[in-house]
Structure formats: C-alpha cells, structure tokens
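Blinded run. Sample ID left blank on purpose so nobody reads anything into the name before looking at the predicted structure. Input follows.
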Amino acid sequence: MRAKLQELVNDKPIEQSPHYLLSQELEFEFLKSILTFAMAFIGGIVTLKTALGIDKPINEGLTYSLAAVVLSAVFAFHAQQELISDLRKGRTASKIKRLFRHFPGFFLLGISISYAFSYFESSLH
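Blinded prediction complete.
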C-alpha cells in the first residue's frame, strides 16, 4: 500500500524515448488549446454581452462564468510552465501531478461554458 502511494506521489527520472517526448509535446499542445479557447471565450462573452445590449444587469451567472474561464486559463498556463520545468530538470511528473495538470483547466472551462449558456439563455427570454 505504501509503495503504491509513493509511486503516485514521487517524481521519476525522465524517459528519453521518442514516445515519451512526443507525449509531452502533445500534452503541451492540449494545454495550449485549452488556454487559447479560454482566452477566446473571455472575448466572446464580453462581445456577446455588449452586442446584445441586454438590459438585465450582470448577475452571478456571468460573473461565475468569467471567473471560471480566467481560472481555467491560469491553470492551463501554469500546467504548461510546470511541464517545461519538468523537461528542463530531467524528471517525469508523478501520476498525481499529471492528473492535476489536466483536470482543473478543462473542468473549469466546462463550468464556464455552462454558466455562460444559462446566463444568455435566461437573458434572451
């Protein structure tokens, strides 16, 4: 049990295989796409709110959406920096670190989209 826990938490030396390096490049591109989509989504929300001229005041739905998408962008950018740092230091991130690199940005982006959708849907009716 303790050995499995140590395996989840401890970093390992880097693998020099082409497969591992390709997987790291793909992981970086995935995080970059989340970051790009989050930034575009921020611009889209603000533009849509302005273009529609919705008389309804900004409520917590739009505020939550903006906060979640900003956090998504921050988490994705931080994960990119950590991935680069791991490659420079010659280590492979632990399973827990890899999980926390992927999950928060993607999850918060989904939450942001759902809050924005519900805000604009309720504002147009």
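Unblinding after everyone has recorded impressions. The chain has a mean pLDDT of 87.
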